[in-house]
Amino acid sequence: MLKKVYPERNSDDPSRALLEKRGDLYYPTKEFQKKAWINNGKIYKEAEKAPIKFWEKLAKEIYWQKKWKKAFLHKPPYFEWFSGGKLNLSENCLDKNIPKLKDKIALIWEPESETETANRIFTYKELFQEVNKLANALKKLGVKKGDRVGIYLPMIPEIVVSMLACVRIGAVHTVVFSAFSSQSLKVRLQDTEAKVLITADGYYRRGQIINLKQNADDGINETKVEKVVVVKRAGNEVLWREGRDFWFNDLTKDESDKCEAESMDSEDPLFLLYTSGSTGKPKGILHTCGGYTVQTKVTGKFIFDFHNQDIFWCTSDPGWITGHTYTIYSPLLNGITTLLFEGAPDWPTPDRWAKIIEKHKVTIFYTAPTAIRMFEKYGAEILKKYKFEKLRLLGTVGEPIDEAAWLWYFNEAGKGRCPIVDTWWQTETGGILITSLPGIGPFRPAFTGLPFPGVRFDILDEKGKSCSGEKEGNLVILPPFSPGLLRGIYKNPEKYLETYWSQYGKNVYFTSDGAYKDKDGLIRIIGRVDDVIKVAGHRITTGELEAAINSHFSIDESAVIGIPDKIKGEAPIVFAVYKNDKNKEELKKELIDKIKKEIGPIALPKEIYLVEDLPKTRSGKIMRRILRKIFTGEELGDLSTLANPEIIEKIKNLM
Ligand code: PRX
Is the distance from CB of 168 to CB of 141 less than 8 angstroms? Predict the structure, then answer.
């Protein structure tokens, strides 16, 4: 790829610059540093000396109904944080903020349509009331502490209310991304055995109404769901089953707005969130109450430097972990205002996101490199009229950001003024664990930065030896890990052990990411070393795509590879061995439908090649590495281990 060169640019107004360049690194200016929660390196020293003690100190930032007995307990591969402590996340987000902040705006909702007048802004008190009403309604539906509740909602305020209501009564929410198919919903509901699902009639996407209730109806077939709570959003017609389906508003309107928060043990399950595993089946990542709440509170405070006046816009859908932690819980725990936008950031015009920043006076903007590259593609011209006066900090997450996109983000979105926190984490880690802190720095484009204080990382070679110099290796987390790291894979302890604690033994958490450190200790993430591909920041495994494709009766087997994509970062390419009895174009269309149905539109491949066979070793292993090289036109190297080298030319001829 041609390396893009951007002019060095200083702030539009140098007196307002919050970031300055020294050598090839960037640092916050004195002005930013002065106001930041964390503005000197003492915190790193303190944390390094005694990480458990350090986290205990941070744990005091939240409200505990009862203090923990033991801060960290390690029985490899299991561990606990703050055992014996009692708390409730919803109480921390709402009740504890009400005395000081009851009339402060907690949530701003921006609908997709610019002409829609519904102005749904919730103060902390209003959000508290809505949450309590739904919590009471859920109890009446029979939901009890420990029960799993499915949430299949678009980006509307009710998703925030639903998650907090579950947490309030100790129910374990499982949010399923609204663009996932009914089949994906079903698999998750079956695994969790949820009896209640909260969904909506429909929602808007690029001006179209998507009938979500229809998907929900299909998805709950063959599951244990007995009650469906339906939010009226789009007003589309829906099929209705009396006794099973209830309108959200009917259930909540006469409920009391007081519902005592359940007292949860620190290690009680908080939520399950499914993510792609190395086989076809998604894994239910389990997070627990105490550690997650502490980590979510303090990572937001220190990394986004949340202050009272901040208006934070994290563009992630709450269906993903970024949405759980930073669209919802962290800003609320910190008593600031969070913004939830229903639509796509480039609809109806490419500058919609910029309009929203301006309209709501957003101070901190957090998005994914895919979005940044898309904004870049639309050109900087359309941004000239936006001043982003209030913007003071930018963040990025979900996939590596290259230097060109970083500089574009810095220059055009940040107007050459704002620090950028490039935040590394995973569904499993629950919150950000690597990034330079904005009040300290340093920032280096394409490097995420330093480990969060109190979290010990290493980069190991295949043999488990620490990599020195700038050598690439596997990124791992060492004890005492972090309070918010996953506690298990739901109903699958073998997978938990195998995925995270087998590569380097039961004391070392294996992230599945490749990385290296520069001379300043800043970490650069190379990407996944397993079969996960990040398509527009979304996590998909080649295995789950292959399973969807192989389930078509005309397909014998398939191999999926991820290839670099200018906008999406990576894109899937499919090679499928087909039975020669079908029109190829028709078959490709059917495969697309199959993927949409089994997974959802986010997993659509960039290209499908129908092939006679796949390159295999004599033991029958599919050589995906060779397929990638054929696709990218690289030298294929030694092919002597192949059982069927003749297939190479045939595949090449299809390109
Ligand atoms: O490969 C890393 C990449 O995203 C993976 C985790 O994906 P997921 O569980 O969907 O969570 C994404 C949002 C937290 C990681 O293993 N990743 C995440 N953040 C970054 C990143 N890669 C490079 N730079 C990042 N900042």
Answer: no
